[in-house]
Amino acid sequence: xxxxxxxxxxxxxxxxxxxxxxxxxxxxxxxxxxxxxxxxxxxxxxxxxxxxxxxxxxxxxxxxxxxxxxxxxxxxxxxxxxxxxxxxxxxxxxxxxxxxxxxxxxxxxxxxxxxxxxxxxxxxxxxxxxxxxxxxxxxxxxxxxxxxxxxxxxxxxxxxxxxxxxxxxxxxxxxxxxxxxxxxxxxxxxxxxxxxxxxxxxxxxxxxxxxxxxxxxxxxxxxxxxxxxxxxxxxxxxxxxxxxxxxxxxxxxxxxxxxxxxxxxxxxxxxxxxxxxxxxxxxxxx
Length: 286
Prior knowledge:
Layout: H1 8-26, H2 30-49, E1 65-68, E2 74-82, E3 88-98, E4 101-108, E5 131-140, E6 143-152, E7 158-168, E8 174-176, E9 181-183, E10 186-188, E11 191-196, E12 203-206, E13 211-219, E14 231-243, E15 246-253
Parallel strand pairs: 9-15
Antiparallel strand pairs: 1-2, 2-3, 3-4, 5-6, 6-7, 7-8, 7-11, 9-10, 12-13, 13-14, 14-15
Helix pairs in contact: 1-2
């Protein structure tokens, strides 16, 4: 251990990872960039195999998402590598704490295999890739479900936000997606928003209210319905509020309270014709 209580071996490995990340960011050739990322995957995996890696903060990895569940059940790392044509590939690892034994699962971005991404269940080999920036957890009949908020830099024309759910099976394997989101008397397993890459969307967890709050998205013109590169926030806000066993969709919550920045809990919700996200079969994201 060094003077700051950090494992010297992991400090060295973290420094090597930071150096490689910076090299990838500066590289303009996509083939070389991907080759360097393969080195990063190997280097990162070796670091996670080291003793005490689960407790090590990895707080110098500014360009890599690093979230740990409040119960120390797992930690997840995610990052993206730009590709030609404005596309992105996503990579990651999830460390699962099984009674003190740490299992490591590399995450394989398999978004293209999802025919109905809002309805399908995934795993570490079939991961709907995204960069996660927030984590919370809820209990359903005694089982813990972890809710992750993420962003997917889809392409040059549209961006996506994702609400993903993870639960850990008895054998320690992670499962992505669960029919826990309730909208209009039906349930979906994952929430995906898509909107113009020129716009910015709010999607955040409000712990005090037990709500996930987000911008309602609408097309710029009626003839742009379901053409999501023309969807933008319409100055109204919706939410998912947890009422066991579901995250229940609530439209048109009021956040216009000058006395506080946090949104008020909804009273009587306005019913929009359509939520601003994909929830039905046939309304697929590209």
